[in-house]
Amino acid sequence: MNRSTALLGAVLLAAAAGAIRPAHAAEPSIDALTGFGDAKFGATEDEVKKVWPKMEPLGADVQKPAAAFSSPHLVRYIINGHTIDDLKSPVDVEFRFWEGKLWAFLVYFKPEDKAAVLKHLESKYGQRSSGIEDRPIWRNDKVTLQAMSDDGWYGSTDNAISELARAWFFKSLTGNPEGNAPQPAGGAAPAPEAAPKPAESGEKPAEPAAEPAAKPGS
Question: What are the structural domain ranges in the chain?
Answer without folding.
Answer: 30-174
